[in-house]
């Protein structure tokens, strides 16, 4: 009986220990699987990190390059705005065009002013007095071309007639207008004498007389109900515009020179 009791006891103990042993074995397997998973994750993370290194380097390089470019541009902009405002120089065609616009903005016909003067060769240093001289030359050239028109129209008109008489007056008036503009140009080119307020006033008087001559010519033709009024008016328009523009530039020459840090010379 004692033997049987011991056998039953051993059997019972083994039976009781089986679940525990199974649990321990299962736990060991679980630990083994977890170690394998951790190793795989570490390997995957390392591989992913290795793949990301070139991408991170590329992005970092791009950001650094952008910062360098921004710093250079900022320095250039700061330098351009902190330079001392000396008299303007013509470093580009755009700056010359802007300077011409400044001049032409004081005229009654800025479009024709800019169209004619913007095609001139730019000098190293912008000078409104040189622009005024150029404008006067253009005005005189148009008046010279216009002066032959009355003679042509007189040949077409019935002579003697009021229309022919008005055209003869126009011929004389156009000659006087050319003389007035020529006087103004001569005053600017008279030796090394600088412009003065009194000289500018004389020049303005001459240019005003030239414009009056043109208007008087048209008034005479209109009074005679001439059939060539429109033809003369159209032909005279460029001369009128450039003479008017020259007078406007002359009238504002002192202020324009000051705008470019210059004085009358």
Structural features:
265 residues, 80% helix, disordered N terminus
Characterise this structure.
The chain is mainly alpha-helical and 265 residues long. The protein has helices at 2-82, 93-104, 110-117, 128-146, 149-156, 162-188, 197-223, 229-251, 253-259. Helix 4 runs antiparallel to helix 6 (162-188) and helix 7 (197-223) runs antiparallel to helix 8 (229-251). The radius of gyration is 48 Å and the shape is elongated.
> From the helix content, strand content and strand pairing, which structural class follows?
mainly alpha
Mean pLDDT: 77
Number of DSSP strand runs: 0
State the shape: elongated
Strand-residue fraction? under 5%
Q: What is the CA-based Rg, rounded?
A: 48 Å
How would you summarize this macromolecular structure in one to three sentences?
Helix content is 80%, strand content 0%.
Write the layout of secondary structure elements.
Blueprint: H1 2-82, H2 93-104, H3 110-117, H4 128-146, H5 149-156, H6 162-188, H7 197-223, H8 229-251, H9 253-259
Helix pairs in contact: 2-3, 4-6, 4-8, 5-6, 6-7, 7-8
